[in-house]
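Question (not urgent): is this output format expected?
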Amino acid sequence: MQAQQVMTGNPRTIPGSETTGKALETMLAHGLHMLPVVDASGGVLGVVTMYSILAHIVPDYIVSGDLESVSYVPDIGLLQRQYTVRAGQPVTAAMDAEALLVKPDASLLSVAAALISHDRHAYALVADEHKTLLGVVSAADILRHLDNGGAAVA
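Got this back:
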């Protein structure tokens, strides 16, 4: 079985010129955890996720542990201020440029292995040789296919 047989075709995307705030708004409105970021011709630039947006708004000094006690920081206010500033920035500032790309004819076994070895991703972007987005395969898609008895026994 190949990636193209299990992928979700024509996934919702966001242009690289759009804002981070618009990306979050779109994900929340449609119950998505990620959006492929594409250029004007549909080429993959990266992927923006709930995780990448959160990582973009939490100050580096908090993540690095430079602050002795995070409990003294006015947390929600700080995050709100950070989000307000960053929401107007291009989504490319918050995206992960290291998106997992697989070819349409990749085997599901190789896609599953790539998902496991590629940090922070539960999906692979299916793209042609020009990096044009064709679809998305998630870990859930593969498992759903297996649970439905779709996999042949070797």
